[in-house]
TrEMBL record:
Entry keywords, A to Z: ATP-binding, Nucleotide-binding, Transport
A Gene Ontology molecular function term of the record: ATP hydrolysis activity
Domain called ABC transporter: residue spans: 27-260
Gene3D superfamilies: P-loop containing nucleotide triphosphate hydrolases (3.40.50.300)
InterPro entries given in the database record: AAA+_ATPase, ABC_transporter-like_ATP-bd, ABC_transporter-like_CS, ABC_transpr_LolD-like, MacB-like_ATP-bd, P-loop_NTPase
Protein name: ABC transporter ATP-binding protein
SMART domains, per the entry: AAA
The organism's taxonomic lineage, starting at the top: Bacteria, Bacillati, Actinomycetota, Actinomycetes, Kitasatosporales
Pfam families: ABC_tran (PF00005)
Amino-acid biosynthesis listed as a keyword: no
Length: 270
């Protein structure tokens, strides 16, 4: 659906037993909308397909519906209308226990506040999503840590790491199950610019080298420029989309959307 800036992780690549060319899209939204109460529409019905091996940024002014979109897409919230599919599985057909299992096994999450468990070591944090998944959890977690450049820090406590290192651990944890998709919510929001670039490069590498799929909510045009495409929301609607976004273009669109939100002009429909 959208172009790629570098490499071709999706084309002809196999991850595990999965033939990425034949597999269903990592994420599909069909007419997904969310009304919190009568008349308060946080998200108007949106259609979206994110193929495997792509990196999508979701942007928009505060209150435009980014978190609502992500929560519905990730199975953390149930949309009022429409259907969400993750790796071909329709979420509305799942009871709570199955949805929880799908989120644990097939979805990775990276939040602004890395959400590491302070009482566990770094490697135990990475292994958490694997705890019900077999004896090789420790080994897989260590491999994941090595892949984010922290192979030597497995026994450390999260409090002994820098903010950027903690976010690397959070990324290793998000990837450790080999999920269909990773949702990152402002993953660089609390990092300085240089550290943020390292974290974004790591997400980019996960997509290009390992064929992972990332959907990232961000306010930062520099961060969005690491994605293959950027989607822009205004008042709960998708109003624009950029392929191969560049920082200056993204900045301009965000500035215009901010003005439209403040002065009440209508956004353009895509
Ligand atoms: N639980 C809720 N109940 C009622 N309204 C809500 C609820 N959550 C969000 N909203 C409203 O839905 C709209 C979209 O909110 P959302 O949090 O998705 O926006 P956002 O783009 O993520 O904002 P921000 O960038 O500030 O996090 C806002 O008008 C918000 O006030």
């Amino acid at each position: 659906m959208f172009g790629r800036r570098c490499g071709s992780a999706a084309a002809g690549v196999k991850r595990g037993d999965l033939d990425l060319e034949r597999a269903p899209d990592a994420l599909t939204l069909a007419g997904v909308g969310r009304e919190y109460r009568r008349g308060v529409v946080a998200l108007h019905p949106v259609d979206l397909a994110v193929p495997r091996g792509r990196f999508l940024a979701v942007m928009g002014p505060s209150g435009s519906g980014k978190s609502t979109l992500m929560q519905c897409a990730a199975g953390l919230d149930r949309p009022t209308v429409g259907t969400v599919r993750i790796g071909g599985t329709e979420l509305s057909s799942l009871k709570e226990a199955a949805l929880t299992r799908l989120r644990r096994e097939r979805v990775g999450f990276v939040f602004q506040a890395h959400n590491l468990v302070p009482s566990l070591s770094v490697v135990e944090n990475v292994a958490l999503p694997l705890l019900l998944g077999g004896d090789d959890a420790d080994e897989r977690a260590r491999r994941g840590l090595a892949a984010v450049g922290l192979g030597e820090r497995g026994e450390a406590a999260p409090s002994e790491l820098s903010g950027g290192q903690r976010q690397r651990v959070a990324i290793a944890r998000a990837l450790v199950t080999g999920p269909d998709i990773v949702f990152a919510d402002e993953p660089t929001g609390s990092l300085d610019p240089a550290t943020a670039q390292d974290v974004l490069a790591l997400l980019r590498q996960a997509v290009d080298r390992d064929g992972h799929t990332v959907v990232m909510v961000t306010h930062d045009p520099v961060a969005a420029a690491w994605a293959d495409a950027a989607l822009f929301l205004l008042r709960g609607r998708v109003v624009d989309r950029l392929e191969r976004p560049e920082t200056a273009q993204v900045h301009e669109i965000i500035r215009d959307l901010g003005r439209e939100q403040r002065y009440g002009r209508e956004g353009c429909a895509v």
